[in-house]
Amino acid sequence: MANKFLLMKAAIYIALTLLLSFGLACPMAYGQYVHTSGEQIVDARGREIHLRGINLGNWMLPEGYMWQLGGHVQSAREIEGLVTELIGPARDREFWRTWRDTYITHDDVQLIHQAGFNSIRIPLHYKFFASNDAEGFQLLDRLVQWSKAEGIYLVLDMHAAPGGQTGTNIDDSSGYPWLFSDPEAQQQFLDTWQRIARRYRNEPTILGYDLLNEPIPNYPSLMVLNPLLEPLYKRVSGVIRKYDKHHILILGGAQWDNNFDVFGPPFDPNTIYEWHRYKVVTPDQNVVQRYVDFRQKYHVPVWLGESGEHNDDWIAAFRTVLEKNDIGWAFWPYKKMGSTSTVETIAPPEGWSRIVEYSKLLDGAGLTRERLLQRPDQALIDRAFTSLLQNIQLSHCATNLGYIHALIPSSALGMKQHEN
């Protein structure tokens, strides 16, 4: 009897050890949170979720082309420099506060929901999350509440990392991806994700953490950085998992998220692999097959985190290919100026063409005299920037139903349209 009792005790101990060892892989461990299950993304009840999302580009991280700017004014810091030059440092602080407060509101989230989207990807700039009470957290806290009210999932995307992961305008860096070799930048990166994970670890509206947007361009001189990408993902994942064991981790490939050859077997059981597609190609099976193969090889979900910037017919054809292959998506972007390849179009303010022409001039302190000769009248500048803050509000934007129906043919949005 004693031996039988000891055997039963040992069996129970082994079972408990195995359960604890594999707890993260067990659906029960995720409670009320969205998580992965094999090749699928599922909700708390284990039902598959087909992600249909939109990106909030240009909100925390403005890009020159979405302002119709030219020349060297493309990154967030370059746009901010132009704004400071044109309206002054005191007014530009108020301008940017108003921009971030009004570019995305509850009305925008309601429209996204009504259009038929079920998720939003939010490009983040690390500078807005430098402390626990930083502005970025205040903005996200509001968005979480609005999205929760509308039943929308959120993906937090580190679009601009400390030091830069691309060296280009999209991550607001200094011209080289120093994140992969600079210890201080890496520590900032880890600390930023730690603050985010600690704040949102108990928030089920957050679907997951997109650790690094489009790392390492496809420039030959930068591909030597490829072997450094997955180790960096492992480091930041370790930091996140100390505080948050249930949110999904999202890993983008090298070369603008497209190269999955940098990945070995999954190192975390709750992971999505992300790719992007912008290049003008025929939207057919050839575009997606390599990612389908990767999914089948490792039995993990894959997700298209960005695409767009094409006409409605291309958008519809590509979306059809994605859904045929059971690949969720988030198209780019929700709002931008003067274009219909977006959900909402911002009208250029009166006189904006003069601002655009000025943005194309060569820059530098040594060129101030020449630039002043072509600087627009201050009254025109002031009117343009005042109007811009009005035009970015949803009530002043134009809704592009063709774009929406290319993505969501069943969308009921069509009875209501915002016009200038």
Key phrases:
420 residues; TIM Barrel; disordered N terminus
Oligomer: single chain
The level of helicity is: 40-55%
In what range is the share of β-strand residues? Answer: 5-15%
Rounded to the nearest angstrom, the distance between the terminal CA atoms is: 84 Å
Major pleated sheet: 8 strands, parallel, barrel
Identify the CATH architecture of the domain at 32-59 and 103-347 and 397-407: Alpha-Beta Barrel
Number of strands: 13
The helix/strand order is: HEEEHHHEHEHEHEHEHEHEEEHHHEH
- Could you name the CATH topology of the domain at 32-59 and 103-347 and 397-407? TIM Barrel
Main sheet strand line-up: 3-4-5-6-7-8-9-10
Which structural class matches the secondary elements? alpha/beta
Describe this structure as you would to a colleague.
- This protein has a domain at 32-59 and 103-347 and 397-407: TIM Barrel (Alpha-Beta Barrel).
- The chain contains 14 helices and 13 strands.
- The chain has helices spanning 2-21, 76-87, 89-102, 106-115, 135-150, 183-200, 229-241, 254-257, 285-298, 312-324, 352-359, 368-374, 378-391, 401-407, and strands at 35-37, 40-42, 52-55, 119-125, 153-160, 206-210, 248-252, 271-277, 302-307, 328-331, 335-337, 344-346, 398-399.
